[in-house]
Write a structure and sequence with these properties.
With about 160 residues, the chain is α+β, with helices and mostly antiparallel strands. The longest helix has 16 residues. About 30% of the residues are buried.
Length: about 160
């Protein structure tokens, strides 16, 4: 497929709400494939369509564990547990920026797959974090606005090479 251009910090589209996908056609399926290719190129775990400039409610996630790779159309969180955790996060739209974000430890998400079938996911840990992060993008919210004060850091490629 194709590598899409990532929208980065300062691009106003990242603050806009995405529209519901009414029909899952070949264009939506091709967009999902492009999103997987783009996410993999930049070593991401998740990507929302808005991050490649498309205001559609579509996300892709790949935890690189041979079982957790999927695209979700019109995902929404329909339940969350009471417990919250502070997760270290970064974002492909905010390169080299990291911080802790408080998120629900467990969530349930309803969506459609690329065949139009309804799916329900119950998630915890890293998957719950990724789902919340990507669904936030669909609502025009970015992780940087949710960072716990005092936990933000910028890591340069040179810093990463020292580790």
């Amino acid at each position: 497929m194709a590598i899409r251009i990532l929208r980065e910090e300062g691009d106003e589209i990242l603050k806009k709400s995405s529209r519901v996908i009414e029909v899952i056609d070949d264009r939506i399926k091709a967009l999902a494939e492009d999103m997987f290719d783009t996410m993999h190129k930049y070593d991401g775990l998740g990507l929302a369509a808005v991050q490649v400039g498309i205001l559609k409610r579509l996300i892709v996630i790949d935890l690189y564990d041979d079982k957790t790779k999927f695209a979700l159309v019109n995902p929404e969180i329909v339940w969350h547990g009471d417990e919250m955790e502070d997760f270290e996060e970064g974002c492909l739209s905010f390169p080299n920026q990291f911080g802790k974000v408080r998120r629900y430890s467990k969530v349930k998400v309803k969506a459609q797959d690329l065949n139009g079938d309804s799916v329900t996911l119950e998630a915890e840990g890293l998957l719950a974090q990724a789902l919340q992060h990507e669904i936030d993008h669909l609502n025009g919210e970015v992780f940087k606005d949710k960072i716990i004060p005092g936990t933000f850091e910028v890591v340069t490629p040179e810093d990463l090479n020292k580790k």
